[in-house]
Amino acid sequence: MIIDELEYYQAVDRAIYAAELADWLPARLFDIHTHAWLPQHCRQPISSERVGLVFEAESVSREELDEAYALLFPGKTVEYCVFGMPLTVIDREANNAYIAAQIDRQRVYGLHIPGLDDSAEVLAERIRAGGYSGFKPYLSYVTWKDLEDIRIIDFVTQSQLEVAHAHGLLIMLHVPRNTRLPDPDNLRDLEMIAARYPGAKVILAHGGRAYSRPLIDRALAVVAALPNMYFDFSNVQQAEVVEAILARMPPERVMYGSDIPVATVRGTMFMLNGQRVAITRKPFPWSISSARPGQLRCTFMGYEQVRAMKTACERLGYTAADVQRLFYDNARALIDSAGRP
Ligand SMILES: [Zn+2]
Q: How many domains does the chain have?
């Protein structure tokens, strides 16, 4: 079980869900961004990875994922696109095989975590054999550069792009650098991908990690004009950022994602003078908490994100049908199109 404090859940989280979210959310959700991996896939503790992470779970099994959805969204049906935890401390091949075993292409879809040296032929065969809808590349595998020097094209390889372009596959992209989506190298690489590999469907995870209005506005000036770029809203907890993306992007290219296990952490994240800060109910090395245990009345980061999405939708006058497109139809249509060139 990746959600703890079940009495607190009933008293606080469930009450927030009932009062603010249950009636507003559609009956069916599609989560385009979620993770699963098993304890036996971990070669070392997750916390020993060089990349900074904002969660506590050392593993999330398929069963725990379904339990988490049942607690986060009681009464709703959740379909999802799941992938492994793309870290060097994880056995990538074993994790990929576990994901492939969950895929039914009805309710559960999945992405393949590629190796940086895999050829286009190898990748195309992996996608076919596993029934995946695309790739989840990640910067952690670029171990020979400082984190802040890593470019998108260092881990989104030409082989991945060729296969994704040829087969109309998704690429779930976590953009690098503390300068985030509007970083000039990031925008240059996205423009190159759009020009040369228009068949690839690139999802900018976490709203491109541009968790403030100035960051997202600068990025959208470029990204909104690129025809094969999409956004998921996982971890975006600022209504003004959601609102900017919804206002500027074509309506079918925005979708819900949870980034479980992150959505199950009780707390909130925001930008402070260019730095991402997390406040959490429990104390972690990577967060600010109270010196008195259990004092902070936090709810799930996943709820803070849906609250931000709700505020943005209300400001933009979204109807129930618009909300359903955002939380279900868009992702479902995109995943159905994956594999079609
Ligand atoms: Zn993620």
A: 1
Mean pLDDT for each 10-residue chunk of the chain (341 residues)? 95 98 98 98 93 91 98 98 97 98 97 98 98 98 96 98 98 97 98 98 98 97 97 98 98 98 97 94 95 94 98 98 98 95 73
**CATH number of the domain that 137 lies in?**
3.20.20.140
Is 274 a member of any domain?
Answer: no
For 11, the 3-state DSSP assignment is helix
Residue whose pair of structure tokens reads 């939380």 in the numeric block: 327
How many whole angstroms from 96 Cα to the centroid of ligand 1?
15
Task: Give the Cα separation of 225 and 200 in Å (integer).
Answer: 15
Say if pTM beats, i.e. exceeds, 0.70.
yes
284 in any annotated domain: no
The DSSP output letter for 318 is -
Report CA(33)–ligand 1 centroid distance (Å).
6
∠ at Cα 320 (317, 326), nearest 5°?
Answer: 85
Q: How far away, in angstroms, is 114 Cα from ligand 1 center?
A: 15
- Contact between residue 30 and residue 79 where contact means Cβ atoms under 8 Å apart: yes
**Exposed/middle/buried for 242, CB within 10 Å: 0-12, 13-18, 19+?**
buried
